[in-house]
Amino acid sequence: QRDYRFERVWFWGCIQGVRGAYYIAEGLGPDRAAPRSRLYSLNCVEWSLLPPATEEMVAQAEQLKGRFLGDPSFEYEYTEINAEDAEDGKEPVIKEESRLVATIEQIDRAVGIIPRGAFVKTPLGSVRENRNFEGLSLTEAKKLSSYFHFTEPVNLKKKTLLEKADLDPSTDFLDSLEHDIPQGKGS
């Protein structure tokens, strides 16, 4: 927190590899909705900053299957060869560190959620933790509309003015889980 001048650091989680685990932390500035800096460690003592995720990293990582090894410098070779790399005679590779970045991004997009009211948007546009938030009532906690994706809103921008009329701009500034359609088997 001191070295990178973060206002706050959250422990994101752990991704277990064959030879070791990656411990992931997120560094936050004053705006909680701003892109977060992510760090990883193999021993919880020495931390390395991860680069921001790109769509190319995510697309490449989706082609890889199997467990992580626990070695950030390990290079995976993947089967889909683009024309430029084929002409150069080199096999396309992706480092495990890039796969780690992409995997964290995919997990955040899929399941990074917050309860309604836990964060508020200030009139200047920054997002802060709501110090008055004491949790959801039992009735509210049972509703999907009481939870939001903690990522850049997509569906909210598509809503009409009439649909937005009942929303509180200080708390309803993210996409609700209310209209999510589960993916996978049985959906």
Short description:
22% of the residues lie in helices and 22% in strands. The chain has 187 residues and is α+β, with helices and mostly antiparallel strands.
Structural commentary:
The chain is an alpha+beta fold. The chain folds into 2 domains: 8-111, no CATH class; 113-179, no CATH class. Helix content is 22%, strand content 22%. The protein has 6 helices and 10 strands. The strands form 4 sheets. The chain has a 4-stranded antiparallel sheet with strand order 1-2-3-4, with no helix packed on it. A two-stranded antiparallel sheet has the order 5-6. A two-stranded antiparallel ribbon has the order 7-10. Strand 3 (37-41) and strand 4 (48-49) form a beta hairpin. Helix 1 crosses helix 3 (96-111). The mean pLDDT is 85. This is Radial spoke head protein 9 homolog. Its main location: other. Keywords: Cell projection, Cilium, Cilium biogenesis/degradation, Cytoplasm, Cytoskeleton, Flagellum. It comes from Balaeniceps rex.
Features:
187 residues, alpha+beta, 2 domains, 4-stranded antiparallel sheet, 6 helices, 10 strands, globular
